[in-house]
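pipeline stage [seq->struct] | target=cysteine synthase | organism=Leptospira ryugenii | residues=326
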Amino acid sequence: MMALPILNGFVSAIGNTPLLRIPSLSEETGCEILGKAEFLNPGGSVKDRAALYIIEEAERSGRLKAGGTVVEGTAGNTGIGLTHICNAKGYKSIIVIPETQSKEKIEILRTLGADVRLVPAVPYANENNYVKVAGRIAQEIPNAIWANQFDNLANKQAHYETTGPEIWRDTNGKIDVWVTSLGTGGTYAGTAEYLKKQNPNIRCIVADPYGSGIYSFVKTGTIQIEGSSITEGIGQGRITKNMEGMPADDAIRIDDKECIRILEHVLRKDGLFLGGSVGINLGAAYKIAKELGPGHTIVTVLCDTGAKYQSKVFNHEFLKEKGILP
């Protein structure tokens, strides 16, 4: 049996997550559908990577000093990752989160010791949008930084330096398609840029829920928003700094019914209890596999587990109310 290295605490356990083959979807399509198991990060999500890079970049630049405060506007997972790292490094965290996000994520943040500020969910153009509120709070507090995950390029760099190389290594360079949804754009863009550099023939495809404008941006060059989605932390009505110039060969839009169907399917067939955005990711991977036919390798992201979304995504009463029970 091969010995695993002993890691020094929370921070050193971030990254190097395995690729999981999704047996039921792979066997049905004849493709290798692989998910990067980001729920195995110590903070429970893909956002641990960006949180670490953002904090370490702020330390290196001298903006974040001993005893400082990290402020962020987040749908939840970045805030959770940041708060874990702040606890490990001796910083305080203030997390601004829309009140519409799942109660599970809000309670986790409080349990971790974050100063949680709930705000109404309003569009980015509104001065009271959670991202802008976080920026203002950071300016008002001495020795505080605004993490600014949407426009802070340390986010994308995390995935260019870690997620992309790990996928390339673990597939032995045999990958045909990289597909995932975007919130800040960091995971998709950083990984896509790295993979394209290794092999320009790898197709990089955006997965988007309804209620987001990235699908139309990739297809037409303009942001147009249609419909809505119950998914959290993904979808966007603007092009963030992390998205600028990203490689995008195509885009696929997945509706909530297909998202929930896929999540229920992999739970019952593969034993995988996964979060809402993963339904969009796997729905897109499955659709691509069907279109391409057998023999292709498609990689996506398993962002987090379903435990943070039981009150919504796995609540049949809620789904019935929304008219999206499969």
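stage status: PASS
auto-comment: Residues 46-146 form a domain with the Rossmann fold fold (CATH 3.40.50.1100). The chain has a mean pLDDT of 97.
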